[in-house]
Amino acid sequence: MVNWMEIDQQVKMWIMEAGSSIRESFQHSLSIQTKSNPNDLVTNIDKETERFFISNIRKTYPGHFILGEEGQGDELASLEGIVWIIDPIDGTMNFIHQQRHFAISIGIYENGIGRLGYIYDVAHDELYYAERGNGAYMNGVRLPALTEVPVEKALIAINATWLVKNRYFDEKKLVSLASRVRGTRSYGSAALELAYVASGRLEGYLTMRLSPWDFAAGKVLVEEVGGVVTNLWGQELDMMKTNSVFAGAPGFHKKILTDFLLKK
Ligand code: IPD
Ligand code: CA
Ligand code: CA
């Protein structure tokens, strides 16, 4: 039997420790490298934070698997067993440029089902977490179930990039949605944007290309408050690939799919 409560206590301690080290790193200069393109950034702190989690997980839970953004985890072909899906710093560009609006994101899955999700807003010291079936919380305060809001009163997160011609989705549909809602925002951290949907600060989040470590924790959180997380076609997310992502309360999610995203 997996002791989820014990794992929960352990991971929270590690997250707090990692958060302190990251805040301390603001005093020192960063070593910044690029990955797939000049705007795809990684720092020594992203790598050190991932290494910190991985070495602790390996020592404490040797039978568990790890999928980490910076590639220091396992090479996995499936989510069989218990898999920790880790983004040590989600929002690295914000971390470098602003020292805020970035998060540690950890989802713990069992045979493909999200059991635990943690998103720690390091600069604001806000920990969002959820255990499947046992509620979602922010700093110990239970998050209420999502409420439905009409499209005209909704605040959604979408990046301006997706409103110009792109190869992933018909931008005209997204422009039509963006002009109908009350307002749009873009925070630059998928994990935080999902945490904001879960905590009712946003009614929806839409984006075109996220990796499993960007949404693994957020999916657990949003679902635990009754929300729905799919791709932009309303299909289930593939936890082993990049996906488009659309999160919101069920009625709102359905309405946006019918009236905008899937509209002929
Ligand atoms: C990025 C952020 C960003 C999203 C990108 C991600 P990273 O993660 O979540 O908001 O738009 O697609 O890659 O690289 O900062 O961990
Ligand atoms: Ca990320
Ligand atoms: Ca990252």
From TrEMBL:
Its cofactor is Mg(2+). It catalyses: a myo-inositol phosphate + H2O = myo-inositol + phosphate. The keyword Protein biosynthesis does not apply. It is an enzyme of class 3 (hydrolase). It holds the Pfam family Inositol_P. Gene3D superfamilies: 3.40.190.80, Fructose-1,6-Bisphosphatase, subunit A, domain 1. Pathway: Polyol metabolism; myo-inositol biosynthesis; myo-inositol from D-glucose 6-phosphate: step 2/2. Keywords: Hydrolase, Magnesium, Metal-binding. Its EC number is 3.1.3.25. Coiled coil: none annotated. CDD domains: IMPase_like. This is inositol-phosphate phosphatase. It comes from Bacillus lumedeiriae. The lineage of its organism: Bacteria, Bacillati, Bacillota, Bacilli, Bacillales.
